[in-house]
Amino acid sequence: MSASHRPDSRSEPGRAGLRGSAVGGEDGSMNGPSTVRAQSLRLRRGTAGATVVAGLALLGAAVLLMNSWRSQLPDPVASHWGVDGPNGYSTVDSTITVTLVGGVALVLGFGAVTLFLGHSALTRRIGAGATIWSAFFLSIVAAGSLYVQRGLADARDAGGIGAVILVAVIGSLAAGIVVAIVVPGDPALPTTEPVDADAPRVALDAGDGTVWLGTAESRVALAIGLVAAGLMLGFAVLTQLWALLIAGIAVFGLVASMSVVVVRIDRTGVSIRSPLGWPRTRIPLDEVVRANVIDVRPLRDFGGWGWRVGPRGRVGIVLRGGESLLIERTGGRSDVVTVDGALVAAGTLNALADRERGNPSRSS
């Protein structure tokens, strides 16, 4: 059964409703604002600290390993590869320095994203996964490129590094996904406060079977994914680095999975997911403070398209510009999804939240 598409007279679709919301009382009780802020800070610090330390440890181990091979390597070593094999050379020290400096910059950068913008579990998981991914990828590529040169008198005799790239792509992606999965979720922050009276609402059907379904897609993102995969395929053929075929498929699969989302709103809350099931996020109904409609400009508001992080840790599933659904959550969190029919979606969500909190008169 679906929700009616008639916003009532209390709807104000133009209002953005950007206020944060506290859960519980103002006296520092279990779900008071000070407690919520402290919980959020502990989660952000813990996740960022653990993954940054792990990322730096991975880089350190790679540096120690590469340094231990110094006496077994040619001088200079191959540092760049082309169609016919190595075509660029440097010292071992230079290879180690580039790996260490680049890796530390990436690890600290993604760690900062986790710490300062990780107000929701989704953002922390993205930041933590990216931290470990970058450390693994750089470490495997750098150490692997030197490993294949051990025992050579001349670096020009080194073969290709297709296998190294394949291991780096698959290994780093797997490590990042595992870390993202094990990052703790958000603590439950339910509220019983009614939704603001001026928030948009629709009239709900009788019973508990009300469901709103919507989709959001980006043909531009899908086209970009196809172009990127095609370029990697062409480069793989030219260079005979066949591992890039796997990388191209992985890139296209990742872009494709993030270029379409399905949004479902029902009495349990909001589910936003790719048709493949990942990535996905869920917002419990008892953590919805208010839903509304805002106008989104991807570059200005989120720095681009896709699953993004905006100011103050706002999560954005941004596949186009224009009218979008804004969901304000307990704990000062908020999510934006650029779904068609955003006004009806907001009205349905507000009405369901009212009904579940014992305020049926607001959604009648």
- The shape is elongated
Can you give the helix content as a percent range?
Answer: 40-55%
Across the major sheet, the strand order is 7-10-11-9-8
If helices are DSSP runs of H or I spanning 4 or more residues, what is the number of helices?
A: 8
First-residue to last-residue Cα separation:
16 Å
Domains, number: 2
Supply the helix-strand structural class: alpha+beta
Strand content: 15-25%
Count every beta strand, where a strand is a DSSP E run of 2 or more residues. 11
The string of secondary-structure elements, in order, is: HEEHHHEHHEEEEHEEEEH
Secondary-structure topology with pairs:
Blueprint: H1 33-68, E1 77-82, E2 85-90, H2 92-117, H3 121-147, H4 162-182, E3 212-217, H5 219-239, H6 243-258, E4 260-266, E5 269-273, E6 280-284, E7 288-296, H7 298-302, E8 306-309, E9 315-318, E10 322-329, E11 334-337, H8 342-356
Parallel strand pairs: 9-11
Antiparallel strand pairs: 1-2, 3-4, 4-5, 5-6, 7-10, 8-9, 10-11
